Amino acid sequence: MAHRLIHTLVAVSLSAALLAGCAQTPAKPQASLYDRLGGKEAITAVVDALSANVAADARINQRFANANIKRFKAQMVDLLCEASGGPCKYKGMDMKTAHTGMKISEVEFMAVAENASKTLDSFKVPAAEKAEVMNLLASMRDDIVNR
Questions:
Q1: CATH among 2.40.110.10, 3.90.650.10, 1.10.490.10, 1.10.3300.10 for 32-144
Q2: Predicted local distance difference test score (pLDDT) of residue 85
C-alpha cells in the first residue's frame, strides 16, 4: 500500500511539473547584439571614439597615417553593424584581402584590441556585450595578422 502511494505521489508530482512547464509562455528570444549595443548610432559613436583612440596611440597610429579615415570609419560601422545582427551590409573587402601585404604584427593587432576594449569600457558597454564584440574582433585575427 505504501509502495502504491509513493508511485501515485511521484506520478502526480511529475504531471504537475510537466503541466507547469507547458503553461509557461515561451522565453522571449534575446535581442540581437546590434540592438543590445544601441543600434547604428551607438556603433558609430564607438567607432568614432575608437578611431580617435587609435590615432592617439603611438604604437599603431602610423598604420593609419595615410588611410582615408572617413571611409575606414564608415566601413568599420557597416562591418560591426552587420556582424552584430543589424541591417547594414558591409561592402568592403574581406579581412584577408584587405590586410594582405600589410604585415600587421600580433602586437599591433593586440594594441587595436586593447583600444577597442578601453573604448567599449568608456561607453559602459555591459560585460556580456563587450565580450561578444571582442570575440567578433578576435575572430578576424587570423585574416589580419602577418598577411
A1: 1.10.490.10
A2: 97
